[in-house]
Design brief:
Layout (H helix, E strand, L loop, with lengths): L11 E4 L7 H12 L4 E3 L14 H8 L2 E5 L7 E3 L3 E4 L3 E2 L10 H4 L6 E4 L2 H15 L4 E4 L10 H4 L1 H10 L4 E7 L16 E7 L2 H7 L6 H13 L4 E8 L5 H15 L8 E7 L4 H10 L13 E4 L5 E4 L2 H18 L4 E5 L1
Parallel strand pairs: 1-2, 1-3, 3-7, 5-8, 8-9, 9-10, 10-11, 11-12, 12-15
Antiparallel strand pairs: 4-5, 6-7, 13-14
Length: 345
């Protein structure tokens, strides 16, 4: 495996013994050894309790640089509305340090990066879901719990999934990334069945709240490569944040996008718009893990919104949310009149 600029290299690796019975697990094991990365064996990722670090914050930072290679035990896929019918498992965890990330709470005390090596079994299950829903198209989201592009140089799984879906007339794949390491995916036989989406934002948001991810310029350059490779392209603008000069910041975002994208990238373009939200639990964790963050999380300035499962979150008041939605929608259609806005939430 070759290494390119800014790619994630773990500082510590764990292997479940069964992972070494799979070609992917064996290949990753040999790569870890060749890189001189220390590794340990573990019967299960749930038993990893002795990560180095003298404080919780130190352990968290080290965990984000720790790779765990194992098997996906349950092959029942979660649903992934509104973007897809199912979340297809590929990996869990992310090396980025985005202050607002929902994985802060969903991954709880185990923020390390897990790669699943039993991809043949996972894809066989995807095939069953596709057949159950025929003749309808079945969409799979591959980035619900990780950023698969950020670890593709280690796993190779994303290209495997792309080519699998390329051969499925009724299968579609979607994922989103904040990383620019796309070169190994450009020659994949995708058959137009994979929508490659990039997470973008105003410079203020990227610079202040998205450490350890690719720069905006690198992401847009990568988006141009992806468009020229024939992939359907999309952008997620998230989280949309209300801050001083937000109109100028988001206006510049769409100016830069329109200047950088090749014509073939704008013919089938989608946007997903997500305003910043947080829960009380997330706020507590974020303040503990990123104590110097400038992220605004003042409940008094927000509106409480109940979720589908009885859990609430704090979103912007209706007048602010409407102003964000209207302004950004106008900018999108001004620059990309044929684009589709899939939702604002």
């Amino acid at each position: 495996m070759s290494r390119s600029r800014g790619e994630f290299i773990p500082e510590l690796a764990y292997f479940e013994p069964d992972a070494l019975r799979y070609p992917k697990g064996e290949r990753i094991f040999e790569w870890i050894k060749s890189q001189g990365i220390p590794y340990r064996m573990t019967t299960s990722h749930n038993r990893i309790t002795n990560l180095p670090g003298e404080s919780e914050l130190e352990q968290y930072k080290i965990a984000k640089r720790t790779l765990v290679v194992g098997l996906r035990k349950t092959l029942k896929f979660d649903t992934s509305k509104p973007s897809a019918e199912y979340a297809i498992p590929l990996a869990t965890g992310c090396m980025g340090h985005c202050h607002y990330c929902y994985l802060q709470t969903t991954l709880g005390a185990k923020p390390y990066i897990r790669i699943y090596v039993n991809t043949d079994g996972i894809l066989a299950q995807a095939k069953r879901y596709i057949e159950e829903r025929a003749p309808d198209i079945t969409r799979f989201e591959a980035a619900c719990t990780s950023d698969p592009v950020g670890i593709e140089h280690i796993s190779g799984s994303l290209k495997e999934y792309i080519e699998f879906m390329g051969g499925e007339p009724l299968g579609r794949l979607r994922f989103v990334t904040k990383f620019h390491h796309v070169d190994s995916l450009l020659d994949a036989k995708h058959n137009g069945h994979t929508r490659f989406r990039f997470s973008v934002n105003a410079d203020y948001v990227i610079n202040n709240f998205e450490p350890a991810t690719s720069s905006f310029a690198d992401r847009i350059e990568a988006a141009g490569k992806v468009a020229r490779a024939g992939y359907p392209l999309g952008f997620i603008v998230a989280p949309i944040i209300w801050y001083d000069d937000w109109e100028q910041g988001y206006g510049e975002l769409f100016d830069k996008l329109s200047e950088a994208l090749p014509m073939e990238g704008t013919r089938d373009l989608t946007f997903e718009l997500i305003q910043h939200r947080f829960t009380k639990t997330a706020k507590t964790i974020i303040e503990r893990r990123y104590p110097k963050s400038k992220l605004e999380m003042d409940e008094a300035k927000r509106q409480y919104k109940w979720g589908r499962w009885g859990q609430g979150k704090y979103v912007y008041p209706k007048d602010q949310a409407d102003a964000l939605r209207e302004y950004i929608t106008e900018r999108i259609f001004d620059k990309f009149p044929e684009a589709k806005i899939e939702y604002f939430t």
